[in-house]
């Protein structure tokens, strides 16, 4: 599964990737291991064709963070989730349906996802802090996400 670079999230310019020495973005597609799936656009492998378990967005998950849940499920199965800085997503400006109570909603969603995957070591960084919405993925990564940090694919 991979998703494009989105300039709405830090770093706010793809040059942060493109200017690193030793990387040839002109001749290659370069994929970076990244769990922060951008739900607006992503590419999902046809796992059924390979005889592997399929992963799709959960239609019963009705709160913020459905893209985070999808990426977490994929990682829990040992699948790779990567960002490709060769592809830049530029979204149209406008209001977001998620802006109202964003922090509260993200925290509630992440608490729910952490509970769903606690058996694999997914935790909240500071569950008692009502302002915290971040995961502690250390144990989860150790158990589930043992892939290359970066993958380079020559352009045709």
Detailed description of the structure:
By secondary structure, this protein is of the alpha+beta class. The chain is 24% helix and 18% strand. The protein has helices at residues 15-18, 66-76, 102-116, 138-144; strands spanning 2-6, 28-33, 82-89, 123-124, 135-136, 150-154. The strands form two sheets. The protein has a four-stranded mixed β-sheet with strand order 1-3-2-6, with no helix packed on it. It has a two-stranded antiparallel ribbon with strand order 4-5. The longest helix has 15 residues, at 102-116. It is globular and about 45 Å long. The model has no long low-confidence stretch (mean pLDDT 87).
Secondary structure layout:
Elements: E1 2-6, H1 15-18, E2 28-33, H2 66-76, E3 82-89, H3 102-116, E4 123-124, E5 135-136, H4 138-144, E6 150-154
Parallel strand pairs: 1-3
Antiparallel strand pairs: 2-3, 2-6, 4-5
User: What number is the mean pLDDT?
Assistant: 87
The N- to C-terminal Cα distance equals 20 Å
Largest sheet: 4 strands, mixed
Please identify the structural class as seen in this structure: alpha+beta
Rg on CA atoms, Å: 16 Å
In terms of per-residue confidence, which ranges show pLDDT below 50 for 5 or more consecutive residues?
Answer: none
What series of H and E elements makes up the topology?
EHEHEHEEHE
Broad shape: globular
Please state roughly what percent of the residues sit in beta strands, choosing from under 5%, 5-15%, 15-25%, 25-35%, 35-45% or over 45%. Answer: 15-25%
> Major sheet: order of its strands?
1-3-2-6
